[in-house]
Each structure stands twice: as structure tokens, then as C-alpha cells.
Write a structure and sequence with these properties.
It contains 25 helices and 26 strands. It folds into 5 domains: 1-30 and 444-472 and 595-698, HAD superfamily/HAD-like (Rossmann fold); 63-138, Alpha-Beta Plaits; 147-256 and 363-430 and 712-765, no CATH class; 266-351, Calcium-transporting ATPase, cytoplasmic transduction domain A (Distorted Sandwich); 475-591, Calcium-transporting ATPase, cytoplasmic domain N (3-Layer(aba) Sandwich). The chain is of the alpha+beta class and 766 residues long.
């Protein structure tokens, strides 16, 4: 693909945001106290993910490769445990990383082991799918389980349930024994062969997962002569498993829906064929792409021609479309308005902002919240204890208390059925991924459940000023013209000089459009650190600082100017002066305005019990003005980065403290904060990489929203864990006293799993 011959070339490979700060994240590190427990994550493209994974296990050898597999059957810790037991002992394997929610396994291994790896996974009764190519690991969507296979499974299991019910009815009606047994066996074979196969594999690896426990329980029921019960337990279990799997898919599809925002094809320019359709992954950097009115953008880029309003709600959560024209950045997944846009591609398909968000949400699931880590540890202890307890129930009463073997063995089998901690373990990751996905849809990129859960405990928030509370760009607030100066000529001269300068203050004057008159000034000269000057009708005019004007002999005897200057200085403004060679003829007050949503956002934070502290490197007047405007009582000015860090550490001694800055010049404090927020993350790779939470559209309203989401997540986690444990406890007691049948235990076990899944998905509806 080549450029249109009549279009000029843009080089956007180094496109970046130029704030009025020295931005440096090169030494950014996370030093949070509990982060040593958490596995490092990556939110980048597959190449970066591979590099980080290989680097993580570099001790195992210098020449390592990574293979990413999607395994349709891997959606429970039982499968993870089985895979660990099969792969960890292999000398060729350097490291394993599991993502159960996305059914992905990343293996770092020696070269040449890939085929053997796939064979080992297949031998466990699983169907591994190799993920390769650009963006292959972005989505959990798989071709392994097609619609026909799901329908076949539904039909087979439904037939098994029907036969099991028929066997129950036949036994109740005193039908011939052979008929009851035949229907029961048919039901078990139709619905339970895969369970038995998985159970046998688990037993071979000494792993008592739910398939092994269910196989033992059903076999025990058959040996006890409980044929209808055995058939009903197996068929109900299989039916519940397929329902649970489909329910979990809803959580996975929530992540998939992020990437699905991008279209399947985009229109690109080809010199030979004109506008042609291509898949986004096939489009090279700097290619010219067209998006028609109402179309969805498939790639990131910078507008070359056209004017339109783009709906960025899918990326930033903004409620109103954003005007886009030449030079503006646009992003994959957003919707074009009524004007056609042509733009140059600035990021590859798997490096687009949308792709990076999707990677970050997927990888954030691995950064487990404290509650999730507790549940994982608890489940590893819980299952063996319940199994040992079931064995004791089966053996101790008959041997030492005169109990009937068949009765106590049946009670033990019921305990085995409900011993699997799936509901408990699923209770946390589904809730976390729902919250992470919801946050991403609202323009909040959260790098892990740990940060989202911790946020509700944060009571102090340190905020940067420029670019965080303010717009980050100076604007003209007011101007003063001496009484003996001609206003129109004075403003025209100031505008002409400002238009020729690239200083931020001059740009603010130029953007204010002080005059429509175009003056033919000559001899323009920029004096670094002082200002600019030029000649108009043999008179030299200078635009710059007061000190430079006074150094040139400026006369300032206007009390009105002094009063005007004092008033605006109290509001934090800085000044630019126009000097005509004799005296200061005009002055301009320039300041960085407070963001429109800042007052409401800070008020909402105060209502949530969060104390706000303002830390800025700006002058005391500017900082004080912003603090007074926003009602911030505790603030400090002229702070260096290390001073911000020291103040944050003092605040952390009082309570957990978060930091919000532009994600770049506040690196030391952001790294040390309990939770670090980065503003200005749109198009900024470094902000997304380094922040715990990136606010993609600079909307301060997202700050209190993130606290509320943290509280909602914690509430759902507590509800899920309480429900899962309560249901288990009730049926353990019922089973112990012989008041629970096996089919009831099956419904309780999988019913609890469905309950916590549905409760977690409520977060997406908030």
C-alpha cells in the first residue's frame, strides 16, 4: 500500500504529547508493599508479553521460547492443577502462567518442545489451540467449541437426564430391575463418559478434582445398588457443568466485546486499485485509511484530511463526541460522525490503544486481589481436608460405632460430591474480571484486581496540579492597555509577535486572536529566556517578561497597571508585557484554567471520605489560587519530585494514600503510592505501562467513580464467598446426618457456582 500522490507525508512514529513538564518514566518502579506477592503482568502486545515472560524465567536458561495455548476445557483450578502436575516436572519447561478466565496457558520452554507440549496437554483430555500471529492472544474466542458441538452436547446430556428421570420413575413404580438398570446405564454412558475419562486422568496424576470425586461417587452408588441415583447424579452434574461453562462464557465475552469494537475490515488506499478492503492486522504503519460517515475506526492514526466528530465513548467513556481534524489522533473502536476522515496509521493492529486496553484487562486478571489470593490458598487446604473427612465418615462409624457400612459409605459419597471448591474459587475471578471490564468501558484502565480492591481503603489522595486539576495549557485571562496607547494597534502588534513565537505563553496569546489585523512586521528575533521582538514602521516592539523590559529601560509609572497586576497575581496568573522601546504599553495575564469537572469530582471524593492534598512544582500564587478555587486546604508549591515523594510517604504513615498525576513527571510519587493514577493516558504508551490505573480521557469524575467501583467489587466478593461457604457448610451438615441425597449435593455444588457467577455479572450492569 502506498500514499496518495497528492497527499503530503506525515511521520507519526514519534507522536507524543508535549506538556510543560520534563517527562521521565525511565526509572519508574512499583514499590508497593504487597506487590512482591503478585506476579508481574504485561499490558502490551504479544511480543512484549513474550519478552517479559522469558525474562521472568531467565534463570532456567538463556535460550527460551514461549508458547501460548488456548485450552477450551481449562476454566477451573482443577484443570490448572492437573496441567501443573503434568508439566512442572519436565526439564524442558522453565515456567507456566495460567489465565483461567481467558482459558490461556503460557509456557516458557526450551526450543523444540512445542510439539511435545501439545501432546502432553492433549493426553490430559484437553484440546489445545496454538495462538500465533498478530493479536492472536487478544480474545478468548475459540474455534474449538463450535455451535454444532455445543448443540450435540446439549442433546446428549438432555437425553441422559431424561433417561435418569425415567429410571427414577421406573424404580418408584416397581418396574423390572433390568429395565431400571438398563436406563440407568444408558443415562450414565450418555452424560458421563467424558466425566469418567477426565476423572481417570486426574486419578492417574493423584489429583482429586471434581471429575475424580464425581466418578468415585457415581461408581460407589452403583456398587451400593443405587442405580437410579447414580444415573441422576451423573446426568445432573453434566447438565450443570455445561450450564456453568456457558455462564462463564458471558464473563469472557465481556472482555471479547472490547476488541469486537474494531471492525473486521478497513478501507486502505492502494495506488493500483484505489480504495480496497483489508483486515486491520494486514495494514502497515503510515498507510492511508479512510473511514466513512457513521463508520467504525479499525486502527489508531492521525487525521490527514477531513473534519468530523468522533464518538470515543467505547475507549474513554466520554458522553459527547470529540471534534477531529487534521493532526488530531483517532483510535480504533471509536465511531466516526457525519464527515469522512482520512488518516495515517500510527500503530499496528496489535499495538492500538484498544488492543493495549484488551491486553491490560486480560493480564490484570493475573494480578490477584488479596481476597482472591486468600481464596486460592484456602481452597488448596479445604479440599484435602474434606476428602479425608469423607474417608473418616465412611470408615469410623461402621468400625467403632456399630454403624451400617452402606449408610455411612453413602454419606461419605455425598460429601465427596460437594467437596470440590469450584464455586468458592470462581467467586473471585469472575467478579474481578467483570469489574475490570466495566472500568475499561468507562475509560478506566485498571492494571489489576489488587489495586481495585485496595482503593476502597485509601483515605488520602495526593494530586498534581498542571494537567491534572488544570487543563495543562495556558490561556489568556485578561489584558491591560495603557490609557495613552491605541488599543487596536497595540493588540495587533501583540498578536503578530505572539504568532511568531513557539513559547507556551505566546501561543496562548495567539490562540486568543486578539486582533484580525495582519501587520507586516520585519526583523523578527527570538531571544531565549526573554521574549521576542520585531520592527513595525521603524519602531521596535518587544514581547516578553517584565525583567527583560526593565533591562531595556522600560518606564512603568502606571499605578493602574500595578493594581491590575497585583489582582491577577493573587489568582495565580503569570504575565507577558509588550514594550515599545520606551515604556510598557500592555500586559497580558495568562494562567492554566481549572478543569470544568474538577470541583464536582473533588466534592464527590470528600463525600466518600477521601482527603485531598495538592502537590505542585508551580509557584505559590498559582497553586494557592487553584487550591482556593477547589476548596483544598492542604497544599504545597514549588515541590521537586523527591519532595512530593517525601510528603506522600508522610501521608502513608497516616493512612493508605493514592497519587494522581500526568503519569510522567510524577513518577517517584506514583510508584510509591498505594494506588497510582495516571492522567493524560490517551495515546501515551508510558502512562498505560506505568500507572496502576490510567484515566484514558483525563476526566476527573473517573476518580470518585473508581472508588465506588472498588466498594462495589468488595461487596460482591464478600457476597460470593459467603454464599459459597454457607451452601457448602449446610450440605456438609445435612450429609453428615444423612439428610442429603447425592443429586441434591450436585445441585447445591453447581448451583452455588452459578449463583456467584450471576452475582458477579451484575457489576457489568451497574
Amino acid at each position: 500500500m502506498t500514499r496518495l500522490p497528492h497527499e503530503h507525508s506525515h511521520d507519526h512514529s514519534n507522536h507524543e504529547h508535549n506538556h510543560d513538564h520534563n517527562h521521565d518514566h525511565s526509572n519508574h518502579e512499583h514499590n508497593h508493599s504487597d506487590r512482591a506477592e503478585q506476579q508481574p503482568t504485561s499490558c502490551c502486545a504479544p511480543s512484549d508479553l513474550t519478552a517479559s515472560a522469558v525474562e521472568k524465567f531467565a534463570g532456567a536458561g538463556d535460550n527460551q521460547q514461549q508458547t501460548i495455548l488456548r485450552i477450551e476445557q481449562m476454566d477451573c483450578p482443577n484443570e490448572e492443577a492437573l496441567l501443573r502436575k503434568a508439566l512442572t516436572p519436565r526439564a524442558e519447561v522453565a515456567g507456566l502462567e495460567f489465565n483461567l478466565m481467558q482459558r490461556q496457558l503460557s509456557v516458557v520452554h526450551q526450543p523444540g518442545f512445542r510439539d511435545a507440549l501439545i501432546k502432553i496437554v492433549s493426553s490430559l483430555g484437553m484440546s489445545p489451540e496454538l495462538l500465533e500471529g498478530k493479536g492472536a492472544a487478544l480474545s478468548s474466542r475459540s474455534s474449538v467449541e463450535t455451535k454444532p458441538s455445543w448443540l450435540a452436547a446439549w442433546g446428549r446430556i438432555s437425553a441422559g437426564v431424561g433417561l435418569a428421570l425415567a429410571a427414577e420413575v421406573a424404580a418408584w413404580a416397581s418396574a423390572p430391575f433390568w429395565l431400571v438398570v438398563t436406563m440407568s446405564i444408558a443415562a450414565i454412558l450418555l452424560s458421563g463418559l467424558s466425566v469418567y475419562r477426565k476423572g481417570w486422568i486426574a486419578i492417574r496424576y493423584l489429583d482429586l478434582n471434581i471429575n475424580a470425586l464425581m466418578s468415585i461417587a457415581v461408581t460407589g452408588a452403583v456398587l451400593l445398588g443405587e442405580w437410579p441415583e447414580a444415573a441422576m447424579v451423573m446426568s445432573l452434574f453434566s447438565l450443570a457443568e455445561i450450564i456453568e461453562a456457558r455462564s462463564l462464557d458471558r464473563a469472557r465475552q465481556a472482555v471479547d466485546s472490547l476488541l469486537a469494537l474494531a471492525p473486521e475490515t478497513v478501507e486502505v488506499w492502494d495506488d493500483a486499485n484505489g480504495w480496497v478492503a483489508a483486515h486491520p492486522s494486514e495494514v502497515a504503519l503510515n498507510t492511508l485509511v479512510r473511514v466513512v460517515p457513521g463508520g467504525r475506526l479499525g486502527l489508531d492514526g492521525v487525521v490527514e484530511t477531513g473534519q468530523s466528530a468522533v464518538n470515543q465513548a467505547s475507549i474513554t467513556g466520554e458522553s459527547l463526541p470529540v471534534s477531529k481534524g487534521a493532526g488530531d489522533s483517532v483510535f480504533a473502536g471509536t465511531i466516526n460522525g457525519m464527515g469522512e476522515l482520512q488518516y495515517r496509521v500510527s500503530s499496528a493492529y496489535d499495538q492500538s490503544l484498544l488492543a493495549r486496553i484488551t491486553y491490560a484487562v486480560q493480564d490484570a486478571q493475573q494480578n490477584k486481589a488479596p481476597v482472591q489470593r486468600f481464596v486460592d490458598k484456602f481452597s488448596r487446604i479445604y479440599t484435602p481436608i474434606v476428602v479425608l473427612f469423607a474417608i473418616a465418615i465412611a470408615v469410623v462409624p461402621p468400625l467403632f460405632m456399630g454403624g451400617v457400612w452402606a449408610d455411612w459409605l453413602y454419606r461419605a459419597l455425598v460429601l465427596l460430591v460437594i467437596a470440590c471448591p469450584c464455586a468458592l474459587v470462581i467467586s473471585t475471578p469472575v467478579a474481578v474480571v467483570s469489574a475490570l471490564t466495566y472500568a475499561a468501558r468507562q475509560g478506566l484502565l485498571v492494571k489489576g484486581g489488587a489495586y481495585l480492591e485496595k482503593l476502597r481503603q485509601v483515605r488520602n489522595l495526593m494530586v498534581d496540579k498542571t494537567g491534572t486539576l488544570t487543563e495543562g495549557r495556558p490561556v489568556l485571562r485578561d489584558h491591560f492597555i495603557r490609557e495613552d496607547a491605541e488599543p487596536s494597534t497595540t493588540l495587533a502588534v501583540a498578536h503578530a509577535l505572539a504568532s511568531l513565537s513557539d513559547h507556551p505563553a505566546s501561543q496562548a496569546l495567539a490562540e486568543a486572536k486578539l486582533s484580525d489585523e495582519r501587520l507586516a512586521m520585519v526583523g523578527f528575533e527570538a531571544i531565549p529566556g526573554k521574549g521576542v521582538q520585531a520592527v513595525l514602521v521603524e519602531k521596535t516592539y518587544s514581547l516578553g517578561s517584565r525583567a527583560w523590559a526593565e533591562a531595556q529601560g522600560a518606564v512603568d509609572n502606571s499605578t493602574a497597571l500595578q493594581a491590575w497586576e497585583e489582582r491577577w497575581q493573587s489568582e495565580g496568573a503569570s504575565f507577558v508585557f509588550l514594550y515599545d522601546g520606551k515604556q510598557i504599553v500592555a500586559a497580558f495575564a495568562i494562567s492554566d484554567p481549572v478543569k470544568a469537572g474538577a470541583p464536582a469530582a473533588l466534592q464527590a471524593l470528600k463525600q466518600l471520605g477521601v482527603n485531598v492534598y495538592l502537590a505542585s512544582g508551580d509557584n505559590p500564587y498559582a497553586v494557592g489560587s487553584v487550591a482556593n478555587t477547589l476548596g483544598i486546604t492542604q497544599y504545597q508549591a514549588e515541590m521537586l519530585p523527591e519532595q512530593k515523594l517525601a510528603w506522600l510517604q508522610q501521608l502513608q504513615q497516616q493512612a493508605p494514600t493514592a497519587m494522581v498525576g500526568d503519569g510522567i513527571n510524577d513518577a517517584p510519587a506514583l510508584a510509591k503510592a498505594d494506588v497510582g493514577f495516571a492522567m493524560g493516558a490517551m495515546g501515551s504508551d508510558i502512562a498505560i505501562e506505568t500507572a496502576d490505573i490510567a484515566i484514558l480521557n483525563d476526566d476527573l469524575a473517573k476518580l470518585p467513580a473508581s472508588w465506588k467501583l472498588s466498594q462495589e467489587l468488595h461487596k460482591v466478593l464478600v457476597q460470593n464467598i459467603t454464599a459459597a461457604l454457607a451452601i457448602k457448610a449446610v450440605f456438609l451438615v445435612l450429609a453428615l446426618f444423612g439428610n442429603a441425597a447425592m443429586w441434591m449435593a450436585v445441585l447445591a455444588d453447581v448451583g452455588a457456582s452459578l449463583l456467584v457467577i450471576m452475582n458477579s455479572l451484575r457489576i457489568l450492569k451497574k
